[in-house]
Amino acid sequence: MKLSSRRRVVVEAGGSQGWHDLLGLEGQAICVEKFGASASAQELFEHFGITREAVAEVARALV
Q: Number of structural domains, the chain?
């Protein structure tokens, strides 16, 4: 990963803490910032917006 890259997308099933230093100046994080939800992974990802569509939308917006 080039350190000079300004636009990065991070997808994390946990919190975004620790990722912000690596995102670049215009990067975006798609993460779960809440603790304690209980359901299947697919249901939780959809609930928190961690989907292929969401990642593609964020990536397209950065181009």
A: 1
